[in-house]
Design brief:
Blueprint lengths: L2 H18 L38 E2 L5 E8 L5 E10 L3 E2 L3 E2 L3 E8 L2 E5 L2 E5 L4 E4 L4 E6 L5 E10 L2
Antiparallel strand pairs: 1-2, 2-3, 3-11, 4-10, 5-10, 6-9, 6-11, 7-8, 7-10
């Protein structure tokens, strides 16, 4: 027998022995815990997801939109500046609100319209507009995405 034939015969004997005992992934072989075989099924996720509440979470406000206060600067004796985000859900219009203080609007995401002081303005990302105190404003979102507007409220302390 030649050396090549002897080597081939040894490999075949080893393969047959491995197959006879069920192969390396046979259920009676080493378990997945030992680093061999099929992985066990994933754990069942909890029925109620928990976690940490975001620091500035959106909450539904009386106008029908969702809003949150991001920042308040109250250090100056004459002026308070409040930064708020307002999110109008897709295909919704929020009730009109009268702004008691001057506001700078900045559109952060989405598209929509703002009606203020008898004029309607198209809102697109990065659009800004100033609205004087006492103006009635209504936001409308006809798109499939949320309209998110950041409000910089400038309040004179009285």
């Amino acid at each position: 027998m030649t050396r090549s034939a002897a080597l081939t015969a040894c490999v075949l004997i080893l393969l047959l022995a491995s197959c006879a005992r069920g192969g390396p992934y046979h259920p009676s072989g080493p378990s997945a815990r030992d680093g061999h075989g099929i992985l066990p099924p994933p754990a069942t996720p909890p029925s109620v997801l928990g976690g940490v509440q975001p620091k500035h979470a959106f909450e539904r406000d009386p106008s029908g939109a969702f809003s949150r206060t991001v920042f308040v600067a109250d250090d100056h004796p004459d002026v308070r500046i409040t930064v708020r985000d307002v999110s109008v859900p897709p295909k919704q219009q929020v009730r009109s609100i009268t702004l008691p203080d001057a506001v700078l609007f900045e559109v952060r995401a989405g598209r929509g319209t703002a009606s203020a002081g008898g004029q309607t303005t198209e809102l697109t990302e990065a659009k800004t507009m100033a609205i004087p105190a006492g103006t009635t404003v209504a936001l409308s979102n006809a798109s499939d995405q949320a309209l998110v507007v950041r409000l910089y409220v400038i309040e004179a302390k009285r």
